[in-house]
Amino acid sequence: MNKSIFTTVLACSLIAGSVLAERLECTLIMGNDKSWEGFVINRDGDWVEFMTGSSPKPIRVGADTIKELEFDIEIDAEEMNQMNRDREYARIISVLERKLKPYLPYDDIPSNLSDYKAVLMEVHYKVGNYDDTIKYASQLAMDERDPDLQKRARVYQALSMIDGGREADAEALMAELGWNEGLDEDAAPEKLYIMGKLMALKKDYATAMELVAKVIAFNSQDPEWMQPAELFCAEVYTELGLFDSAEEVIRQISLLYPNTNEDDRAQKLKIRIEKLRAEKELQESMEEEI
What we know:
alpha+beta, five-stranded antiparallel sheet, disordered N terminus
């Protein structure tokens, strides 16, 4: 999947509907693009309390009038990237969510924290935390400042719904986005891949294989979608009981994409195939004895 850049504890209490937050350094940008440097010091429902370095007391600003908050947050991007390369996904989640916790009272206001939320969205998906993936993806899908990130968030929304078994929700989202139409060789690989996954969830494996074959045939130079597509192909073969074919794809994944998330998942699938094959052989042996 897409690679991207990859940071205190929030003490919050409710007093007359007010969230007492930490004093957080930031630049406040209004809808007319005027900006002030200072600190957000409190969130009171629809209001944000903001103080500049020179003001004697805070001012109250309507949250819906704020265009963006640019927080002064320190996260070691190289450390995050190294953890991602090492596939230390649980550690990435722990570090980022701890770093972002003080900013939760302002989560509904556009800010410069979107890239970190995108990392959490992707990493939660990799470890199978689909509800958490959807939480971050839903926030990012509402943010119109970055259309590319918005599109990626919708991809993760759909994938998490499918992998989480939420067939009806996934179908509704695909119809809303129009991703269930125009599924020919010119279609975007992510659209073909997601619809293939949805068809597999519906146990329409023939259509699923047809769609994933288009990803592989027409997007061979796109590793972002080739790798998961080949893994998905092995998964469909497994569901069909074509274990030899699945294992051949797994060998190709290990050869072409070693030390990747897809390779890790392929090895787990291989262990599952061994168990399924043993169960099948035992069943056949028992039937021969009857």
